[in-house]
Records
---
Amino acid sequence: MPPFTDHEVLELVRMVELETLDIRTTTLGINLMDCADPDLESTCEKVYAKVVHHASNLVATANEVAEEYGVPIVNKRIAVTPVSWIAGASGAKDLVPLAKAMDAAAKEVGVDFIAGYSSYVHKGFTRADQALFDSIPEALDVTDHVCSSVSLASTKAGINMDAVNRFTEVVMDTANRTADRGGLGACKLVCFSNVVEDNPFVAGAHIGVGEPETVLSVGVSGPGVVRGALARLSPDDDLRAVAEVIKATAFKITRMGELVGRETAKRLGTPFGIVDVSLAPTPAIGDSVADILELIGVDSTGAPGTTAALALLTDAVKKGGLMASSSVGGLSGAFIPVSEDQGMIEAVERGSLSLAKLEAMTTVCSVGLDMVAVPGDISRDTLMGIIADEMAVGMVNTKTTAVRIIPVPGLGPGQKVEWGGLLGTGIVQDPGQFGCEGLWRRAGRIPAPLQGYRN
Amino acid sequence: MTRRFLTAEDVRRLGGPVIEVDEGTVVTPQALEAAAAMGAQIQTGGAGAPRPYTPPAPDRGPDAGRAMETLAHLPEPRGELAGGGMIVTTIGKNRPGVLAEITGFVAGHGCNIHKVSQEIVDGYFHLILTVDVPSSVHFADLKAGLEAMGGQDDFVVLAMHERVFRFMHRI
């Protein structure tokens, strides 16, 4: 056994005990392609049976590994094949029963979320995709654990603006159906440009066509650890020193994720997939990406300089992660979910973090506009414009971008909504007074950009 | 016919008294109910050695063998580990016998202490033990036992698997 210095031992103890280092999620991917059936009721039966069959010991196994290794695993989740792919065989127009079957399976095995109530429509719709879109608002209203995601754009395909329009209506309907819970349904709904097919984080988790029968992936977090390491630097240290500290910390976090992921996968007998090394904040004090940006050197998140600081952070996290593991995947980088990050909530309250600045930040973060609250009476074309802009950022920059936006029924700019738990506190942001009715009317498709033609 | 699943609809279509399924077939809960309602037996094993259906072990797919691999680039020793290593960190108020109490507990479980490091500052001590845990000792039980020691106003124990430190600190 190699000896460790006291410093090495105490560093890890400090990370776990004081800096909220944890494995944010272990996500078991289950391929559902063999569940397709001409009868939707039978499809639902198969989905329930297959998920329970494969995931019945996921929670116990993850808890056992967490206990033994002394590293907390916060969430246990399931990602499945986008269900519109298996629903097509039935020709059903109402796919809510599928969501209910997924929800029942999630409850039976005790996971936090099951994600994959999804479809890919970046170039167009099948009848099943159409049925899925139509059923999302009710599905997210009547279930507790189901998450939904859709692919609307890619660098290769361009942006399906018909789909963006339809998605906008789905977001509004979902928020309105769950108005009594502050539009909570929309917190479980996300759209993507350049969708990631092995993402273990909800709401966008699912497994794509190239994934195996079952696969176990982990998402590691640790904004608190990076924050702690940066706090020990001198405020006058060069930015290269900042990058090095973040890289070294990301290396360590990623290695721990790979160890826990591989061990959990081994005990389940399923192949290990990827480590998603993402700084994913929580509402807990200190577990904040905004705090890191402020330690790097901006007065308040959203101030000029924020995009540059975030670019440094995202890049250094990726570099440290890639050195640590050959299985880095998913979204990997820094998340900026506004309502889930105490530092960002404060920045919005302080008036330093606007919707426009958030969009700029998404050009360099690893995801996109995440957990952003807007007024419940926002016009549909304004909301569509926000989503379309974010899809364009992803498409042109050959990066993944996402939008998880919640029009909070009955609330206007500056008002607060509590979603509870990890979803945190939303402060409604002002989208401005102008929209894009003409863009809505034209619809159609924005062609793929030049950088999409690389064959 | 090879089946991945047997649904309630399949049961109604096939009818009883006996419905034969493959070894790997997953029978849905609704199919079990439907079979029970019509008094049909679901069995597996073929005509030669029929037996009542029991849920199969999950088939994790053709790539499942990869789950058992130890990759050469990871900081793992080659070959199977005989047991595990545990790093025990303790912080608390110094008093006579505290070291003996902790090391005695470890020894009582048949574990060998590989390295001890202790420092005392202003009446408080911190102790780091590197412990060899033989494969005959249940790792989780030892860990739980250690962490239940001490208490408020005395000392706290944190025990972690040595692999966590190795993965984090070794290239």
---
Amino acid sequence: MNVTAPSQNKYSELVILLRAANDGDAACYQKFLSDVSIILRRVVVRKLPANDVEDVLQDILISIHKARHTYDCERPLFPWLLTIARFRINDHLRKLYANARHELLDPDAMPGISSDVTETIEDAEYIEKLLDCVPERERKILKMMHGDGYTAKETGTHLGMNESAVKVAAHRAMKKIRMRFGT
Amino acid sequence: MQTKDLITRLSQEAPAKSQLRSPVFFSAGLILILTIYGVGAQIFLGSRPDLVTQFTRPLFIAEISLLTILAMSSAIAAILAMYPDAYQKPGLLRLPYFVFAALLALLFFEVFMPDDARMITPPFSMAGRECSICIAMLSFLPACLIFGVLRRGASVHPLLAGSLAVMAAAGMGCLILRLFEPNDTLAHLVTWHYMATFVFACLGAIAGRWLLKW
């Protein structure tokens, strides 16, 4: 995990701030966490999507708060800090991947899954062949009702017929097709 | 909650917190306790009748030495694992596994020693499971103690830390049993002593995942 390290002065200041914080100085602790959050935000941004950054950054700050007694002021600060950050980032990624595995797939969101059956040439030709044996008006009714999804009432309005006449015409057309092709 | 508000809240509720003592302190303490426990358990159980004779065999000495190193190195590694940065000696966390591999390699080496009485292999029986149970019982208290110590830290390797904690305790259990039981059959040792230790370490990893959350 590469991060641009602050200058030596800034680094020493962070160590002094953390030491003071462990001695109970709230102001130093606030300054330490603020300074560290700027550095850590840069680390988190590189690893996670933008909408997760603040949540994970806050998780890391809480972890630093809980584990601050494990830092030995005589040893380098950054390995300690970045290990905690990496731990929380990996934790978050693990949860993210686990959730992704259990997510329901939305067929509507998948291109090509719900494509129209008449889209392929073979299917369209087959349906045209079926419709060849019925008169023009009945063919139009079937196309509107079964192909385009109109209701009997809407089809009637469009063709200037009443609803029951449309239903009767559709029924007769289907009967003719069944008799002709035995389907 | 905004990050800024969180920082303010954390800084306000932060009392003075004393720094966790160095791993040297904890390791030394733990090794001392394990040694006292081991000696006490050995006195309670007694030792094998041929112990003095066995200590004239270099391979037995090597096995006992490796077991001792396994228990001690696991204890030290477990202690290191409770620091988030593993006290900046992360390589040491893997050392016990190499020691364990060396122990198994030593036993494998002994298979090719035809003069050794240990080559006499009795038929496989489930009676040896008593040894595994004995190791589990001997290592229960030390394992609880090590987990208790580890919970004071903040391990970023909870699985590894749990496994090392149990490996240290089970290593001590194996050592005690090895000095007590006069059975030197390789198949028995591998199956009921060392494979059992490995299984316990795996269970320790699972326990570590739950017990060492922070």
